[in-house]
Amino acid sequence: MSKVLVSDPIDQAGIDILSQVATVDVKTGLKPAELIEIIGEYDALMIRSGTRVTQEIIEAGTQLKIIGRAGVGVDNVDVPAATRKGIIVVNSPEGNTIAAAEHALAMILSLSRHIPDANASVKRGEWDRKTFVGAEVYKKNLGIVGLGKIGSHVASVAKAMGMKLLAYDPFISTERAEQMGCQLVDLDLLFQQADYITLHIPKTPETTNLINAKTLAKMKPTARIINCARGGIIDESALAAAIKEGKIGGAALDVFDSEPLGESELRSLGKDIILTPHLGASTTEAQVNVAIDVAEQIRDVILGLPARSAVNIPGLGPDILEELKPYMQLAETLGNLVGQLAGGRVETLTVKLQGELATNKSQPLVVAALKGLLYQALRERVNYVNASIEAKERGIRVIETRDASARDYAGSLHLEATGTLGTHSVTGALLGDKEIHLTDVDGFPINVPPSKYMLFTLHRDMPGIIGKLGSLLGSFNVNIASMQVGRKIVRGDAVMALSIDDPLPDGILDEITKVPGIRDAYTVTL
Ligand SMILES: NC(=O)C1=CN([C@@H]2O[C@H](COP(=O)(O)OP(=O)(O)OC[C@H]3O[C@@H](n4cnc5c(N)ncnc54)[C@H](O)[C@@H]3O)[C@@H](O)[C@H]2O)C=CC1
Ligand SMILES: O=C(O)CCC(=O)C(=O)O
Prior knowledge:
By secondary structure, the protein is α/β, with parallel strands linked by helices. It is 33% helix and 25% strand. A hairpin with a 2-residue loop joins strand 15 (411-419) and strand 16. The radius of gyration is 30 Å and the shape is elongated. InterPro entries: ACT-like_dom_sf (IPR045865), ACT_dom (IPR002912), ASB_dom_sf (IPR029009), D-2-hydroxyacid_DH (IPR050857), D-isomer_2_OHA_DH_cat_dom (IPR006139), D-isomer_DH_CS (IPR029753), D-isomer_DH_CS1 (IPR029752), D-isomer_DH_NAD-bd (IPR006140). It comes from Nostoc azollae (strain 0708).
């Protein structure tokens, strides 16, 4: 049974899902050295923001197939190191969107009305109404940096509160921003005009220290900054200095350069600053959402299925995956089949996406075909993450072509593998209730669902040949489950595809090719 390590607090709903397919160990608060010592036993690791998954931990995770981040940001995972080792990294892109957006909105209002400090003063027994005179957000400019999922929800609520919305996001169109009631502006203008600046961007080399002494100097002296995105996007000492010197009005921070926050001058800035311990996603609802979302993906990967929100599989988003999932299985089966027919070392794989598969969204099918092709060589070590890298390292040239006009089936996939032993091709489609069918082998039309053990022959279409092959297989106690012949012309060349109940015993292939009329025979295990 597979083993999953949960190294941060995760809602029980997630643990229950994982327990259906694996032994689950919950061990929170591990030191890096302790994690390194035990990670080698586990097939999957599930984390929140508390665990930093370094290259060292990934190297020690010799069995790891998947790292699941129950949340959005994966900046606490060395994703390139995981990708190099073929480890899938998944997150929950939407599970905590509302929670994080509502936390940012709560910060805006709390900061404006000094709620945390006013509350503390009443609890101390005071009744001070002068110190805590606040400001209204109505008709104030809110500058949203990052108009993605969280930024967009903040925008819609802030709009309802009567705020004027400015947004900066280089990857969002003006039309999309306008739909959300935001005026898309450049960053300098946003800094100059905003009364509130809220950050909803990932931490990347471009966004690190985006708020620094220079950018703080551009802001209004009353501007308030909210960071519920990531620590490190703000230079904390420059921010503390700007608040102390009255260069800006205040800040509300949920995330910090180093967490938990240690000694910091931010703690001593009074009512102009609010600090929360990375609570953006800490609602009951969000924790259930992210735990279920990520646990389901870990379960799927353990069961050999693709994950819907893998961050290191290019082009595979949840909606695309939903559509492509059955075709990914088709691509993988065909890749595995053509690799075995080609035998030897494959040098070129041509992937032809036909009919409705000839869209740009179909890129993951090429990866799935490569995964199938490399399965014989790498077994479980090849997956959707590393298939392209492994193919490249083996010098396999991949040619991708598209033919939207092909109309034999709604969508079909044609693979051709050329290697040291020659060229073979297979075509397949999904028929009926999305059942995989082989529709062509080496240019000969057939229509068979693939089975675990198969035998293919290339032979002369002539009387008696099927009977001879049947008797030969019978003499070796091989039971035929189904058989079909594909030919282009009567008494020309033909292909026979047989499904057999057991693997073909050693030595029998040579006997088959000795049958008069049979030129070649191939056995495959799918
Ligand atoms: N405090 C907390 O507990 C939580 C924090 N987060 C943080 O919030 C961030 C945003 O989350 P989502 O909205 O779900 O992500 P998202 O991916 O939907 O949106 C991020 C947006 O930032 C934009 N962006 C990227 N680089 C940018 C740049 N240099 N300048 C301006 N915009 C840029 C992208 O175009 C995108 O629209 C996450 O990266 C995560 O770090 C998320 C959830 C909870
Ligand atoms: O796990 C958490 O509570 C933090 C959530 C977070 O920061 C994220 O989802 O990016």
